Amino acid sequence: MPATNKKDKTGKIERFTAKKIGKFIKYIVFATNIIAIIFLLLSILSWTVVPSKITFIAYLGLIFPITLFINICYLILWLIFWRWKYALVQLAVIACCWQPISTCFPIHFKSNKLPEKKIKILTYNVRGFNWLTGDKARENPIFDYVTNSDADIVCFQEFSVSSNNNNRRNLISEKEMDNIMKDYPYKSIIRLGPMRKSHIYGIACYSKFPILESTKVPIESTYNGSVIHKLEIQGRKVSLVINHLESNSLTARDKQLYKDFLKTRDRESFDAMAATLQDKLGTAYSVREGQVNVIRGFLDKQENDATIICGDFNDTPMSYAYHTMKKDLVDSYANTGFGQGITYHENYFWVRIDYIMHSKAFQSYNCTVDKIKYSDHYPVWTYLAFK
After folding, report:
1. Given strand 153-162, what is the order of strands in its sheet?
2. What is the residue extent of each domain of the chain?
3. Is residue 347 classed as helix, strand or coil in its secondary structure?
């Protein structure tokens, strides 16, 4: 056979193979794009689908930022290769997610014009003040931060102090805490968990406005809880709800499995991590579902002029718990904040799970997450003013 014929045949085979590979790559890209679109659209349902019935949707809500990023990458890809029809479809899908996007990634610049009669609300999960003892407990930087914050109302979750009559653990005592918070004439501390003689653990509210009443909401939980306070603010009755919803109860071992997967990214570590997270997260989603339904039902019966809900929800903005709790309220961060607003920052988990919400009787301003690493949570604050 002539050499030219052999070369032509070889060239045809190579072109045919390259064409086949090209088609296969296009198919893979197109198929994975469709999967990414489906996941993104399904993740929106995490606001309304009950986790106890379809937990898978709740997981998709958790990874909404990731699926959104992947879809944006596909949009850029189609634009680069001038695939206008595909780009238009991808853009339409992303546009359908505008409300979740603006909730998770708000873009608002701080206002320099603030009302004269504004009030400042601060919520902070302090992780038991890191359970510091002795001199370290009394020099805790959290205290300096809070007292210098100029907040009118301070809402603590995982608040922990020693009992005044029993301080064998040498924690900061309730009496010492009262002295630190001396600018706040009104306080309410609601215990959570088993009663202990040595220390008090729970939810605390320190206020410059009168606290007329404090009621523990009857939700099912051992160490978490919710409290409704009735405050008088500028002559109006305000219901202030401080939540610490069910945690995911991830142990040090569970978090290590997650870290191992991020380092190795192999199948074995993924399977171990997925099994653990599915068990812990699935249970917690269902518990929080019941908790928010009880809290909202309890709150809807309150007679007031305005409502504020704040605290650690242990759930992201793309969750049933968040959406049900928010209902007809305004998320002050989504309304006035800038960026993702991560409030939990340890063990490679970076999520926004701490919130300040308010009724439409208020206008919120400059909601901010202060990036101070004194706890596993960052504090969140906002200004509110009656309309």
Report:
1. 186-191, 199-207, 153-162, 119-125, 380-386, 362-369
2. 3-104, 119-386
3. coil
Task: State the Cα–Cα distance between residues 97 and 47, nearest whole angstrom.
Answer: 12
How is the beta sheet containing 211-216 ordered, strand by strand? 211-216, 225-233, 236-244, 306-312, 354-358, 330-331
Taking the C-alpha atoms of residue 323 and residue 330, their distance in angstroms, rounded to an integer, is: 11
Look at residue 274 in the predicted model and tell me its pLDDT. Answer: 66
Q: What is the DSSP pairing of strand 186-191 with strand 354-358? A: unpaired
Comparing CA positions, the residue from 193, 142, 136 lying closest to residue 170 is: 136
Cβ distance 316 to 341 under 8 Å?
Answer: no
Nearest C-alpha neighbor of 343 from the set 365, 307, 374, 370: 370
Mean pLDDT, residues 228-238 = 97
List the structure tokens of 204: 């605390």
Higher-scoring residue by pLDDT: 256, 360: 360
Determine the number of helices (DSSP H) and then strands (DSSP E) in the chain.
12, 12
Render pLDDT for 154-175 as a digit per residue (tens, 0 to 9).
Answer: 999 999 998 766 555 667 888 8
Q: What is the pLDDT of residue 159?
A: 95
The pLDDT tens digits for 212-225 are 999 999 998 888 99
Q: What is the DSSP string of 229-292?
A: EEEEETTEEEEEEEEEPPP----HHHHHHHHHHHHH--HHHHHHHHHHHHHHHHHHHHHHHHHH
Average pLDDT over residues 38-61: 95
The confidence band for 61, taking pLDDT boundaries of 50, 70 and 90, is very high
Backbone angles phi, psi at 100, to 5 degrees: -60, -40
Percent of residues, the chain, with pLDDT higher than 70: 84
Q: Which helix (H) or strand (E) holds 357?
A: strand 354-358
| The overall pTM is greater than 0.90 | no
Q: Report the length, in residues, of the chain.
A: 387
Tell me the backbone φ, ψ of residue 197, rounded to 5 degrees: -80, -30
pLDDT at 272 over 90: no
pLDDT digits (tens, 9 = 90+) for 175-223: 899 999 999 999 999 999 876 777 889 999 999 999 999 999 999 888 8
CB contact set of 188 (below 8 Å; sequence gap of 6+): 204, 205, 211, 214, 227, 229
- CA distance to 41, 59, 90, 311, 332, per residue, from 47 (Å): 12, 12, 22, 19, 18
119-386 belongs to which CATH class?
alpha beta
In angstroms, the CA 56 to CA 143 distance is 41
